[in-house]
Design goal:
The structure holds 2 protein chains of 2 kinds.
Chain A: E1 8-9, H1 10-20, H2 22-37, H3 44-65, H4 71-79, H5 81-113, H6 120-135, H7 139-166, H8 181-187, H9 189-195, H10 198-201, E2 208-209, H11 214-240, H12 242-247, H13 251-257, E3 260-261, E4 264-265, H14 268-299, H15 308-322, H16 326-335, H17 337-358
Chain B: H1 2-21, H2 25-47, H3 54-62
Helix pairs in contact in B: 1-2
Classes of the chains: A mainly alpha, B mainly alpha.
Chain lengths: 362, 67
């Protein structure tokens, strides 16, 4: 059997996290925050950092102290085998549900935007096939693909944001007053719902080499998340207004479609969709890899590769079963997913850090 | 859906056969369990297209069955 180098650097892991959360940020954070905080929604991301930065710090302290061990092993070492195994199983089920949800969102988005009228199940099937082939190669290959996709995303964001800001209307993002404090604080839950996907990243902590300048890489991640998401929210609300953004299923795509240069359509929407589909692919590959790794660790199996077929097969059927329409998915994402994500993505690291600190393990 | 089910059955059978050959009992058992769950779900979606979706069930539970 060929031995592969399955180690990735902390920066590569952070880039996977940034790309994996990219489409969810574009779709979910924009509309949900606009719906909750109206014209002040662009402040929700900086406010969410009040919680995200301590989470990042706690995760870093624990994961660095247990470098070379997976999240499952760390949970068992800190909380005991019974609680550790139970929590790991719960996280595996959560990741499996997120895998199905994002597979469904990816195919639904393609049907809504490009392949109008096509059967979403066909696109879902093709997507599942691609993921099944790529994830088998392991995290190092996903990471190498991801680096290229990250560069494309940054270039595309710079280009589309430049054109979006040409149509920017300051009166759409103002006024901001003390009356906005409570809505902004409430809307900060939505960016956090997505940002807590940093926790599943450490499911494969045993594959991550922390290396030098670790804090700088974490600061870069937090800074990139804040800057891009705030700019996206500012551009979207400043162009279309919060009323429209809060009601759209794919707000960024609609805004990009409306970009005009010399009084005619710039046609950037096709470029946007192709890169967005690549980002969707990384999101799904990330959750597929994390869920299979977690299941492998919980049941003490030899490898995660053989299990990929039944896991992705199950995720495919569950994605079809998930919702009868996009609106059901959106309703589920806004009303149920934040509680699930925050309890497992934020609550678990918090408990882990507190217990590890009490037991003087970090 | 029928084609997806057929492809999945074929892939699962190949994978399971390989695991049984390698005598990896634990992995084979888990493989069979997840495959069976997926097949049951696939069969439900094919045979009962008027099903109540997962999102609808969860939303109904959390809204107290109001909708």
């Amino acid at each position: 059997m060929i031995q592969r180098n399955e180690k990735i650097t902390l920066l590569q892991a952070m880039l996977i996290f940034l790309v994996a959360t990219h489409t969810a940020s574009l779709r979910f954070i924009t509309s949900a925050s606009a719906s909750a905080a109206h014209q002040a929604a662009w402040l929700s991301v900086p406010v969410s950092m009040i919680v995200f930065l301590p989470l990042l710090y706690m995760l870093y302290k624990v994961m660095h102290a247990f470098e070379g061990k997976s999240l499952h092993d760390i949970l068992c070492a800190v909380l005991g085998k019974a609680i550790g195994k139970s929590l790991s199983l719960l996280i595996a089920l959560w990741l499996l549900m997120l895998l199905s949800l994002y597979m469904r969102y990816a195919s639904d988005t393609l049907v809504t935007t490009v392949f109008t009228g096509a059967d979403y199940r066909l696109l879902l099937f093709i997507l599942a096939g691609f993921v099944l082939v790529i994830v088998r190669w392991g995290i190092a290959v996903i990471s190498r693909m991801n680096k290229l996709i990250f560069v494309l995303i940054v270039a595309q964001l710079a280009l589309t944001l430049f054109f979006l800001f040409l149509h920017f209307r300051p009166d759409f993002v103002t006024p901001i007053s003390t009356l906005d404090i409570v809505p902004v604080a409430q809307s900060a839950i939505y960016p956090l719902t997505i940002f807590v996907y940093i926790t599943p990243l450490f499911v494969f902590n045993d594959n991550i080499v922390f290396g030098e300048k670790r804090r700088g890489k974490l600061a870069l991640t937090a800074g990139f998340l804040t800057a891009t998401n705030t700019l996206i929210l500012l551009a979207l609300i400043g162009m279309l207004g919060w009323h429209v953004i809060s009601k759209l299923t794919v707000p960024y795509f609609t805004a990009v479609q409306n970009i005009s240069v010399f009084d005619s359509s710039a046609g950037l929407d096709s470029l946007f969709m192709s890169i967005r589909t690549l980002a969707d692919f990384i999101t799904i590959a990330f959750f597929a890899y994390c869920s299979s790794r977690m299941i492998k660790n919980v049941f003490g199996l030899n490898g995660e590769t053989p299990l990929l077929t039944p896991i992705i097969g199950f995720a495919f059927f569950f994605a079809v079963y998930f919702g009868n329409s996009t609106f059901e998915l959106i309703s589920f994402s806004r009303n149920i997913v934040p509680y699930l994500n925050l309890s497992l993505g934020l609550g678990v690291p918090l408990v882990l850090f507190a217990v590890a600190k009490i037991r003087k393990m970090v | 859906m029928v084609i997806a089910l057929a492809v999945f059955i074929a892939l699962s059978a190949i994978g399971l056969r390989k695991l049984i050959k390698e005598k990896d009992k634990q992995q084979a058992a888990l493989y069979a369990l997840i495959s069976l769950a997926a097949l049951a779900l696939g069969a439900l979606l094919t045979l009962a297209p008027e099903y109540k979706s997962f999102a609808r069930i969860v939303l109904d539970i959390f809204s107290g069955g109001a909708k």
